Amino acid sequence: MIVRRTAIASILAAGALVIAGCGMMNKAQGVMTVPLSGQNEVPPNSSGGSGTGKVELDGNVIKWNVSYSGTTGPVTAGHFHGPAQPGANAGVVVPFAGPLASPIVGSATLTPAQVDQVKQGLWYINLHTAANPGGELRGQVK
Domain for residue 41, yes or no? Predict the structure, then answer.
């Protein structure tokens, strides 16, 4: 009887640790939804466009599906920038290759340092147009 109670207590304790560990997992482990707008640009712009990025970090592979509409014209460039806090600018770290019509879909292999930056929320998506060459739509990946 004592052995059975000890076993049950051990199972309950292990379950509690698993549940607690799930709560401490970084959000960057799953799919992150990234709202894109001109107000997120630095400096902000008055674009009526908007978009959403779905970003997934799977080990050292980043996958993206970026949809947008209402931009001032065709998207001429798109990429991840970093490392940067919201409100700051940074250089391009991963360019979006292929067609830039919505949706933009792709993936890339990251270095361990880049994975850490994404997990810390230090990357952002930026879409550029001819009218807004510095960026029309932006959203922080977090």
Answer: yes
Residue 134: inside a domain? yes
Q: Is residue 48 part of a domain?
A: yes
Rounded (5°) CA angle 115-119-121:
120
Looking at the structure of the chain, the number of domains it has is 1
Read off the pTM: 0.80
The answer to whether residue 33 sits within a structural domain is: yes
- The span from the CA of 121 to the CA of 60, in Å, is 15
Which domain range does residue 83 map to? Answer: 27-141
CA 28 to chain centre: 7
Are 13 and 99 spatial neighbours (Cβ–Cβ below 8 Å)? no
What is d(CA 142, CA 139) in angstroms, rounded to the nearest whole number?
9
132 vs 18, higher pLDDT: 132
pLDDT tens-digit readout, 62-107: 999 999 999 999 999 999 999 999 999 999 999 999 899 999 999 9
Location of structure tokens 């001032």:
72
